[in-house]
Give the backbone structure.
Amino acid sequence: MEYFRTKWLTHPLAHPVLWLALPLALGFAFSLLIPRPIVGTITFRDAIYSYSAGDIISQLRYAYDHPEIQAVVLVMDSPGGTVADTESLYLELIRLREKKPVVVSIETMAASGAYYLAVGADYIFAKPSSEVGNVGVRTVLPSAPSVYEDEISTGPYKFYGGSRDETLRLLDPLKKSFYKAVVLGRGENLLTTPENILSGKLFIGSEALRFGLIDALGTYSEALAKAAALAHVWNYETKDLRPLALGPESTAVYYGFFLETADGTQSPYPRAAGAYYLYIPESDRRLP
């Protein structure tokens, strides 16, 4: 018996260091089999209209459906766009946010409808000089009814879809809907008056932070770190969701949301009449 006891104590497996190292080695080996959590990124540098919104919605839905994607960072540089497409994007983002953290990183601008979208996120970063806000609605009125001898319609607004007065009456309820989204998203963080928010002002990032329109001044890297922290994940990797959701060859395609001037230059005005959550720079308002 003494012989076997001595033999066991001299056996390599009896060494205490080995007993500590073995579980660590096994744990490391198993960790290699477990996929790393992903913070997905969506880059949006366009106006909000049917085609661009469709691209972003596909990426938001992909993030929602894939459990390996633990959080999403939406990188934004947009002047806003159509009312209906802005609302569609906002609702999809809210749906994703109920399941996973969403952080917005504003680059140059999140104006009008783009800010409407941003307030649906859990956290908003901007640069000190980013332009943020422009809460409100603008309209491009349909042409006044004219007489066309070679065209017949069953009603005076068949060609235009509605009257100029009806379009104008839409502005107030749309403005209230926008403001409601801001209040819902920012809550007690808002540190300014409704009049200031609804004035349509664009605030630079440092002002937006002071008024509670954003949460912090920061970079894209800080937005990634915040999204991971909100999801309680570490040792994560980042992936662009566009090729995953739309295919590896997918690229952003522009389908002519903006009107072109007589010399072929793209203007900041939309092609169609209607109400818009859209910012148009002062220097460009002389264009038709």
Remarks:
- The two ends are 102 Å apart (CA to CA).
